[in-house]
Amino acid sequence: MKRCGLLFTFVAVFFFSLGFAGYSDIQTAEAAREIKLGAALPLTGALATEGKKQRAGYEIWRERVNAQGGVNVGGKKMKVKIIYLDYESKTPTATKLAERLITREKVDLILGPFGSGATKSVGAITERYQIPLIAPVASSEPIFDQGYKYMFGMLAPNSFLPNSFFELIKKQKPRPRTMAFATRNDFFPRYITKAIRSQAKKNGFMDVYYAEFPKDSKDHSTWLTIVKSKKPDVLMIAGYLPDTLLATKQANELGVNPKILFTMVGPVYSQFTDALGSTANNILTAAWWGEALDYKGDFIGSASDFGKIWRKKFGKEPDYVAAASAAAGIVAQRAFEAAGTLNKQKVRDAIAKTNLQTFFGPVKFDKRGQNTSSAIVLFQVQGGKRKTVGPPSVANGTFNYPR
Amino acid sequence: MIYIQILINSILLGGIYACIAVGFSLVWGVMNILNILHGTFLMLGGYITFWLFKLYGVDPFLSLPISAIVMFAAGYAIQRGLINKIVRAPMFMSLILTFGLQMIVVRLAIYFFTGDFRTVQPSYASFSISFYGLIIPFIRVAIFSLGVILTGLLFWFMAKTRTGRAIRATRMDLDSAQLMGVNIGNIYAITYGLGAAVAATAGSLVSVGFAISPVSDLEFLSKAFIICTIGGLGNISGALAGGLILGLVENFGALYLGPGLQNAVGYVVLILVLFIRPTGLLGRKGFE
Predict the structure, then answer these.
(1) Mean per-residue pLDDT for A349-376?
(2) Which of A269-278, B61-70, B199-208, B253-262 is predicted with the least confidence, judged by mean pLDDT?
């Protein structure tokens, strides 16, 4: 009997709190003089570092906006609130949390999760509920080829990479002729490898080796040994940080010494250069942004200004993940201002018309929602410093060749 | 030539694999505990080496004894304080308890160390001996040798010392050992501490040869699990054999079937061994 009573109390409390939750939602919606944004991020698990960088980027923007009174929406200054949920680096959870942000938290706009895979899943949800999604870290074209109207990506498409890449390496003397590829068996690394590999022949390179390695590979010695025997001029390693870190380390041990070592992702991350020290020197990599770039905007300032803000907070160099996240905030802010309302359809239309110069570079979305006015920049670590070596329009250093 | 190089790589990898597994095997064999914390001890040992190297410039190989001693103490205390309470309970309880502890420690490690992947890259990382086009990386040889020496030391300890013999007696027959005056509580704690110390030293080596992060502990645990099952539980030579076999199978699997199936072939061999010799290749009946 006692147990029954306890159970009853639980059920009662449960329903009571449900009722309250609903009530408080109505309250805030009516009294809302704030813009509610939602972000499901990988704050724990394998991608925690990335998720935290994204949150820090969003927060830098939010603090700045709120410090100047908020966003001017149709003559009213509205403060910004961002609701963060942790999807524990599990994509299916990201989808569920995005739905919760939309239906329960009633957010006005969704800021994207990490990576192409999770963005693809979350994009399906935002499309269904017709709520704008600004994705700072998704660059694979297939996500944007689905005809979605509400999804916008801050990064230049992956297909921009081959052009800048081949333009740079083709003009080296003696001209490199052969290429080998190794990629983590995962969405983004495979995609980016395919993007380069499919253009190799057209650019006069012989494709001598291709391998895929599994997600949590602890040993890369076998394919590195095969690569060594093929003596390629260029070796491309694609994967996430643990993969490229370990593979570069083992390549160094096994004396695998191509004239050009190209890793994605690689030395744009300070974790990579911190961990490998001088071994990271002269490795070529690409990224969507770097502090050294000559980009300027009217909010936050220039690329190096963002670098200063980040350094002051965290004591290290920012990378494109953080920068793209903060810039996604700026795009949202300008869209709310231009729309003059929080109406999701109108905000979506305003985002589609975005034409901005920011510290992150130019932002202008194509019909599919990708930021095609931006560039993918090539970097090389030289004496512990990142230098931009291509494309020529943004380069501030010369490419060390052979490495 | 490429085959010989891959053979060398495999053996060098197998040595560290053996070292990863041997502590796990010891604890499982003697105490009948599936120690999920094994990978965590390994990870912590790796961080001890990493921080000593990063903050004070201590050579990674010199920090091995420090990780061993620190983690022995931690293991001893954890066994006395927590695991001892469930040592007589069904094996399932040990899984739950160590799994819970694992989650706590890993979350704390993420909080304090961040989730970043770290690796120790000493200045001599690219030294290697090369002849006839073959390359033997110095650092891998050092890791391999230390791994094998450590395993050998453990073997000697178990065979020759009084405590080692008591541990073996306890594994063979708990009741008789107790009747002969073996202090079971103490033996269990020492065994667990030893397991932790060996794991931590392996972790120190791993931080030089691989990359570590707080969340990589389960990946190493799964390697330990496969190696122990292949080689046979509770005996040190089993771990050594299992480690070498896994190293060979993974690398030659990668060569013939492609690197994408590198990890999968390990599991295939695991299943095959379970079919043909459920006690493991060097395991003996009645020791599990």
Answers:
(1) 94
(2) A269-278
Nearest one of A346, A351, A310, A308 to A329, comparing CA atoms:
A351
Radius of gyration of chain B (CA): 19
- The dihedral through the CA atoms of A54, A60, A61, A62 has a sign that is positive
State chain B's mean pLDDT as an integer. 90
What average pLDDT does range A388-402 have in this prediction? 86
Instruction: Establish if A219 touches chain B: CB-CB under 8 angstroms.
Output: yes
* Residue B128, amino acid: S
Q: pTM of the prediction?
A: 0.81
How far apart CA A296 and CA B41 sit, in angstroms, is: 48
Give all strands (DSSP E) within A119-170, no chain letters.
133-135, 151-153
Among A319, A393, A370, CA closest to A140: A370
CA angle B88, B93, B94 (to 5 degrees): 80
- Residue B281's pLDDT band (boundaries 50, 70, 90)? confident
Q: Does A185 touch chain B (CB under 8 A)?
A: yes
Q: Give, in degrees to the nearest 5, the angle at Cα A94 between A90 and A100.
A: 145
What is the per-residue pLDDT for A286? 92
> Which chain B residue is nearest to residue A51, measuring alpha carbons?
B115
**CB atoms near residue B64 (< 10 Å):** 21
Q: What is the pLDDT of residue A16?
A: 46
Answer whether A225 sits within 8 Å of B116, measured CB to CB. Answer: no
Average pLDDT of chain A to the nearest whole number: 89
- Would you state the structure tokens that stand for residue B143, as one six-digit string? 């890791």
State the smallest CA–CA distance between residue A185 and chain B in angstroms.
7
A76-86 and A34-41: which strand pairing?
A: parallel
Q: Token pair of A235, please?
A: 């070796």
> Whose CA is closest to B33, among B228, B257, B271, B223?
B228
Asked if B125 and A221 come within 8 Å (Cβ–Cβ), the reply is no
- Phi/psi of residue A298, nearest 5 degrees: -90, -10
In 3D, which of A214, A38, A53, A192 has the Cα closest to residue A116?
A192
- Mean pLDDT in residue range B155-183: 89
Q: Look up tokens 């391999």; give the residue.
A: B144
Is B259 within 8 Å of A213 when comparing Cβ atoms?
yes
Task: Tell me the residue type at B193.
Answer: G
Could you tell me the CA-to-CA distances from A107 to A29, A40, A104, B74, B98 in Å, in that order?
10, 12, 8, 47, 40
User: Chain A contacts of B140, Cβ < 8 Å?
Assistant: 253
CA distance A95 to B14: 41
Summary count for chain A: helices (H), strands (E): 13, 15
Closest-CA distance, B41 to chain A, in angstroms, reads 18
For residues B55-84, average pLDDT: 94
Residue the block writes with tokens 């911190």? A274
**Are B189 and B182 in contact, with CB atoms under 8 Å apart?**
no
